[in-house]
Amino acid sequence: MNYGTLQDFAVKKRKQLHQTPETGFTEFITTYEIYQEIKDTDFQLHIGRDILVSDKRMGIPGEEKISQSRDRALAYGVPETFLRFVDDGHTGIVAVLDTQKPGSHTALRFDIDGLPINESEADSHIPESEGFRSLHSGEMHACGHDGHAAIGISVVKFINDHQEKLSGKFTIIFQPAEEGGRGARSVVEKGWLDDTDYFISGHLGIGDHPAGTISATSKDFLASTKFDVEFKGKSAHAGVEPNEGKNAILAASTAVLNLNAIPRHRDGSTRINTGVLKAGSGRNVIPDTAHMMMETRGATSELNDYMYHQAERIMSASAAMYDLQADIKFMGHAPAACCSEEFIDIVKAACKDNSDIDEIHDVLPLGASEDATYMLNRVIEKGGKATYMVFASPLQFGHHHPEFDIAEHSIRTFVSSACDIIKYLNGSG
Amino acid sequence: MNYGTLQDFAVKKRKQLHQTPETGFTEFITTYEIYQEIKDTDFQLHIGRDILVSDKRMGIPGEEKISQSRDRALAYGVPETFLRFVDDGHTGIVAVLDTQKPGSHTALRFDIDGLPINESEADSHIPESEGFRSLHSGEMHACGHDGHAAIGISVVKFINDHQEKLSGKFTIIFQPAEEGGRGARSVVEKGWLDDTDYFISGHLGIGDHPAGTISATSKDFLASTKFDVEFKGKSAHAGVEPNEGKNAILAASTAVLNLNAIPRHRDGSTRINTGVLKAGSGRNVIPDTAHMMMETRGATSELNDYMYHQAERIMSASAAMYDLQADIKFMGHAPAACCSEEFIDIVKAACKDNSDIDEIHDVLPLGASEDATYMLNRVIEKGGKATYMVFASPLQFGHHHPEFDIAEHSIRTFVSSACDIIKYLNGSG
Amino acid sequence: MNYGTLQDFAVKKRKQLHQTPETGFTEFITTYEIYQEIKDTDFQLHIGRDILVSDKRMGIPGEEKISQSRDRALAYGVPETFLRFVDDGHTGIVAVLDTQKPGSHTALRFDIDGLPINESEADSHIPESEGFRSLHSGEMHACGHDGHAAIGISVVKFINDHQEKLSGKFTIIFQPAEEGGRGARSVVEKGWLDDTDYFISGHLGIGDHPAGTISATSKDFLASTKFDVEFKGKSAHAGVEPNEGKNAILAASTAVLNLNAIPRHRDGSTRINTGVLKAGSGRNVIPDTAHMMMETRGATSELNDYMYHQAERIMSASAAMYDLQADIKFMGHAPAACCSEEFIDIVKAACKDNSDIDEIHDVLPLGASEDATYMLNRVIEKGGKATYMVFASPLQFGHHHPEFDIAEHSIRTFVSSACDIIKYLNGSG
Amino acid sequence: MNYGTLQDFAVKKRKQLHQTPETGFTEFITTYEIYQEIKDTDFQLHIGRDILVSDKRMGIPGEEKISQSRDRALAYGVPETFLRFVDDGHTGIVAVLDTQKPGSHTALRFDIDGLPINESEADSHIPESEGFRSLHSGEMHACGHDGHAAIGISVVKFINDHQEKLSGKFTIIFQPAEEGGRGARSVVEKGWLDDTDYFISGHLGIGDHPAGTISATSKDFLASTKFDVEFKGKSAHAGVEPNEGKNAILAASTAVLNLNAIPRHRDGSTRINTGVLKAGSGRNVIPDTAHMMMETRGATSELNDYMYHQAERIMSASAAMYDLQADIKFMGHAPAACCSEEFIDIVKAACKDNSDIDEIHDVLPLGASEDATYMLNRVIEKGGKATYMVFASPLQFGHHHPEFDIAEHSIRTFVSSACDIIKYLNGSG
After folding, report:
1. Are D203 and D110 in contact (CB under 8 A)?
2. Segments of D43-144 assigned E as strands
3. Which residue from A minimizes the CA distance to D311?
4. Of all helices (H) and strands (E), which one includes residue C108?
5. Close Cβ partners of D310 (under 8 Å, ≥ 6 residues apart)
6. Fewest CB within 10 angstroms: A376, D127, D214, D226, which?
7. A33 in helix, strand or coil?
8. Which residues contact B386 (CB under 8 A, 6 or more apart)?
């Protein structure tokens, strides 16, 4: 089949979405743009509190951030009435179409959030030179979720346009807040995937291959927990009465060294990182607070749990060391997961005539964390098959880099592959 | 003598100066206000590059900060022509009067800078309730230098008005950038104090006594060095390739622990503090930079040197530990010093009839750092006598606190004491 | 074939050798006992400096230890004339038999050293209750090398007795100092294995299986480097002049924390351990020396090198931190290695009628270090095939435990398997 | 008065006692030697459990050490009957003489224990060259307590011989276990000093002056607490399952760094030292135990308490950091104290004609710890006067050094000064 028009649309829409990146749970403009594109299809649309369990969200931004993003959306043209549905960080859309013909329930998930990164203004950076750089200072689509959202819209349009020739049921999830592993759990807990036969998710631009190479499944997801720690001590004049202080920088430093010294584990890879540390108020004041942004990872959920429990004990002991308090705030989580091997044959059969694809790999070792794993796990637990596919793109700068950019051919390939697989799984003659 | 009018002036002028605090080397408004008050006296005035050795200043703020403060001064009404004299951080004034009659050369020093503290808006805070709170967000006179500047102006006026009855020579130094020990050295190096017979400096609000109590001299100045350290490593994805990073937070943490573990010294008190630590860019990134704001102190200059040299070695070893670079930037310094004991008798004799004073202590143990020590040391080296006096004020909140405030009686006492001492030292019948 | 008599001999000889454990490079009694058992065969015997390159040995014990062990051997009955060949830590024997008939050159290696562990006197410990506990206080065969030596002797006897029916050439290596990875390199460097077709080594009692289970090959050898570090500082009275000291315990503590914090590596498992730390001389003295016994490991030699190079830098930086010296002494090494897969079929075919064996596994994941890897690597480099086999034994207490003991059936199985494989590889009708 | 004979005796007796040094609470030979010298005087003698409160002793040695020292004493010739009085570490003697004439109660204290140091065999070391080096390997009088004991005997003899001309009452305390601050408290608690008018203690060889210089009083005693810490974790194979260990060396290292980082105190000098650290059992074993020997000090008892309480918290947190246990064992203590200023005049008046003395200083700053402070404090609390005198001696090697030796003239001076003061305080015509 020729997907040219749909692919052209996806490429163009991605450029537009690239200009309005919004970080997790503030995707007001993005959700509205998706809504606008698909509101005239036969899909049933669900938004806001209807698509997720509110208190299963993690790492919700502060009121000030939400309020600023809401104001920006208003200024952009998102109607006040629409914003009421998605306010307080209830972003994202789920679109459902039941063909009423017997067949599989196939679900696809597309993540839509941006990152707190200031996009490059380098001439060599295509979004800059072609004029679709981020309009939001300090926020950027540096992980390809602009592409994911555009592809998701294309998939909705494809199913809508071809529903005569399709059977079964479709659920398309536009998920907020994938970065930091904050959104997927709340969507899963709402039950959208409990009776799914096939679940497809994926990512643009991973793996060291030319665009046109895809991977049918992935492995080596690292389970990960994201958390913040706040040490609270007591300030004092560093010259006059140092003994009166309870030094948060000493506690944090002890924590950092001992966290990195958590023993390696017999059973496989583990990770820990203190990525950000901010502490103290003035040169001559014993510092009374220290704020740390941290994460643990493990090759399995058990290994990640091992790291997290060790970290908890070390945090608490580091605070006790200097008679401080340590408050740990849970910020996000992604479990480990495995793809269903059946998808290797499915993808190969479905895409055998796809001319955008040069090569199909069975499985790509990811070595990273992704909260789609919540969804993979739920689907497989309930008896369905699930995959996380990868669409290669040569990258000059890695994900989360201010000059990150993806080849448009990888977007086109994702669109045609998704449509091919839908036809294969839900075709009805 | 009745100093009532002069004291009223000082109290009022301090309230005005309180509203326009400027941190070290950006005292554009403050310098101009002092200039305006004393430009019509018989004193010779020196400003800008004439009063200090430019490259002996320490901890000069960045261009952006200087430029913003300059713009603020222009908006305030300081003429462009005046700003040209004090630009690029060459603030402060020195006023000199030679009576041409034989007599002592007496110098007084008043420091004029504010602090990077946001002043309290509490109703109980008098500058707020009486309407003279800082107009400069994030800057505050939280150390009484507004009072010092107002008293200095009063002293100039007093000498000018009574020059008939005075002999010898007077040098009044309005010094920039005392906070962090950044300004005094550059003034001293210009030679203003090389032929001084008597040198008087002092501070409002130190010591746990009612206003009206003064101390003729001080002891236990802590020598201090202020410095910043920047660790520069290499970032890497914390999940995918942790071994590729050079972790600046690990280096900084190692440094902090080992700095605090520098051995106590046989010869007396020492101090070290890492007051501020900011490091890293994102939770899942091996942090490549860490910025630390630090200080050492010692009961003698030798003890402070001991601490600083140990700290230097520890910084360098902490960087080497993780194959990073450590850049140490010198930010300020104050040596230790001793007052001339002769001033005990001088102050007692000069102020014996001063009705503002309830009690005169011989010596107050300071236990803090103050860059007037550069001046004390120079004067005494050259054969003069020098003191650092203290004018008590009951304080609800300590120096450098957002609610710091001083009793007006302590300002009045400083004015009358200074004038009494001037008459005693330089009176001519 | 019935190996009953040979197996009975091995079991009995192992009990005898169990009583005279000697740590690496002091196996004077052990070498002599092996010599006595095989001196009347047709094998050519090589000992002392003839079997190893003297300066390629690692971790040679101090003179005092060697001299005490030598005296003990004299008292035991080892003749002075024999001791002259093996003195100064040149222990071990190599036995060679060339049948002069065309055929493979097959080599086997047996390690013979004991451990510095005090053997248990618990009634439940069989060597105690059956009366063959170690007679050497503080030394013990807690790793089964007594069994290995006894099996090696049995193999020599077997080949000698059946040489009519065998072809090719045999080299049997009784290697000193396997513990700590200290002996194998020096034997390899002498060239014994440079023209070997088949190389067989192995271990008793590894893997969680009943005796009778064997593994044809092993994988997951961890490369390992063993080293000692000596921090040398300066002592001082801790009360009177703490600043005069250069504190070796502070340096060692900094080293320990930072060594354990070496980043995990993308490419696989790594390990580091400070197993022993001894420092200081008295409670009230700033400690001037600290001695650390350490090791690194890695799933590949590259990963072990990564750990060791990081460790070197951290040691040096920890010394610099307190102005001390760090002397690193190389104590032992084992590279990573792979077995030749061909041995899976060889072992299965050779042992297919062996009634001592219940089950043959293809490959056992070892997850430990073993200096036989030097030999595996050399043989394979030169074009031969090599394996490291494992003979299971249920263990109540692990290797290196004071109550370690092995099932005699595992010894019998090792004997019969080795003979079966020799017949298979070198049989001549 | 000519004290020549008595001084000759003291010098000779000290040489004898120098040969049989015994560490705290094992002074069996020493106590017996003192007993032998004074048993025929008119003094009432008290030994063993009669002179101290058994459970107020601190840091009692283990049974094995006590038993070995007891056997050594038996071999030396101390009768079994005598040993029964002083067994289980109840060493020391108190000698009391009441003249029955009205007068002051004057007490003197002499400490008698040696140190666990191996005495030098250098030719330049006088005890070696003159043939009175320690006969006890690993024990030495390296702090002059051999001299103190000999002087104490001389004082008893002097009082006994001159009792006709003396009035009042005398208590001479030969105290065990001064080193480590272990013995004084138990003697004080027995009440010997509760009705003392004058108390005299002192030390040989402190201060940088020639022999013949004495100090009437001392100041700057550092309060000190001695304690041992045992970390108990869990061992595991460092290669195979590092995660199963609970690493005592990591806990100890964390403790060391953080202990040295306890904040300096506004109120004065503090000290902390980990003098000895022994941990771990083998290079490839996660270490399960670590033993630390430690001490805190402070210029006042409050400052020492501050350090000790901080140390306790840090120990406990360091154990919690790695899920270990920390057992803290109290090993000794000395409070801070002040001498009675009245003794300055007493000593000067009493010794004004003493020809052994060249110079009398009022007060010597000690900067060290000494458990005589328990006694000074008790006497002064009860209304008496107390001093700690110092008798200078030029030293080539400091106290606690293997080549420590004192000038004999300092012993002679101590004898004559003590007798002069006794005559002055208790003379009766």
Report:
1. no
2. 44-47, 93-98, 105-111
3. A321
4. strand C105-111
5. D259, D262
6. D127
7. helix
8. B196, B198, B199, B200, B201, B339, B340, B343, B375, B376, B379, B380
CB atoms within 10 A of CB D328: 17
Pick from A240, A260, A278: CB nearest B367: A240
CB B254 within 8 A of CB C258: yes
If 0-12 CB within 10 Å is exposed, 13-18 middle and 19+ buried, where does residue C340 land? middle
D243 touches chain A (CB under 8 A): yes
ipTM of the complex: 0.85
Domain with CATH 3.30.70.360 in chain D: 224-330
How far is C192 from C175, CA to CA, in rounded Å?
Answer: 12
List CB contacts of C10: < 8 A, sequence separation 6 or more.
C147, C150, C151, C153, C154, C411, C412, C414, C415
For C65-119, write each residue's pLDDT tens digit.
999 999 999 999 999 999 999 989 999 999 999 999 999 999 999 999 999 989 9
Structure tokens at B150: 């107002």
**Under a CB-based contact definition with an 8 Å cutoff, are residues B298 and B305 in contact?**
yes
How close are the terminal C-alpha atoms of chain B, in Å?
14
Tokens of B139: 């800057």
Q: Where in chain D are all domains bearing CATH 3.40.630.10?
A: 4-221+337-426
The total number of residues shown for chain D amounts to 429
> Length of chain C in residues, anyone?
429
- Strands A169-175, A93-98: pairing is antiparallel
Q: Would you say C259 and C277 are in contact if contact means Cβ atoms under 8 Å apart?
A: no
Min distance A212 CA to chain B CA atoms (Å): 24
Taking CB atoms and an 8 Å cutoff, what residues of chain D touch A318? Answer: 317, 321
Q: Which of A257, A264, A367 sits opposite C264 (nearest CB)?
A: A264
- The DSSP line for C47-65 is EGGGTS-GGG--SPPPHHH
CA distance C422 to C162: 11
Flag if D237 and C400 touch (Cβ within 8 Å).
Answer: yes
DSSP letter for each residue of B316-358 = HHHHHHTT-EEEEEEEEEE------THHHHHHHHHTTT-TT-S
What pLDDT digit, counting tens, does each position of A286-339 carry? 999 999 999 999 999 999 999 999 999 999 999 999 999 999 999 999 999 999
Whole-structure pTM value: 0.88
CATH code assigned to C224-330 = 3.30.70.360
Three-class SS state of D118:
coil
The Cα–Cα gap between A193 and A384 comes to 9
Q: Do D270 and B260 touch (CB under 8 A)?
A: no
User: Which stretches does DSSP call E strand in A205-251?
Assistant: 213-219, 223-232
D55 burial via Cβ count (<10 Å: 0-12, 13-18, 19+): exposed
Question: Would you state the structure tokens that stand for residue C359, as one six-digit string?
Answer: 């089950």
d(CA A360, CA A389): 10
Which residues does chain D have with pLDDT short of 50?
A: none
**CA of D109 to nearest chain A CA: how many angstroms apart?**
37
Q: Subunits with at least 3 CB pairs below 8 A relative to chain B?
A: A, C, D
* B92 vs B47: CA distance, rounded Å: 6
Give dist(CA A289, CA A286) in Å, integer: 9
Query: Which burial class, exposed, middle or buried, applies to D8 when counting CB atoms under 10 A from its CB (0-12, 13-18, 19+)?
Result: middle
- At the fourth CATH level, the homologous superfamily of domain A4-221+337-426 is Zn peptidases (3.40.630.10)
Residues A29, A134: Cα–Cα separation, whole Å: 13
Question: CA-to-CA distance for C186 and C176, rounded, in angstroms?
Answer: 10
Sequence-ordered list of residues with C-beta below 8 angstroms from that of A51, at least 6 positions apart, any chain: A90, A92, A93, A94, A173, A187, A190, A192
Phi, psi of A253, deg, nearest 5: -65, -45
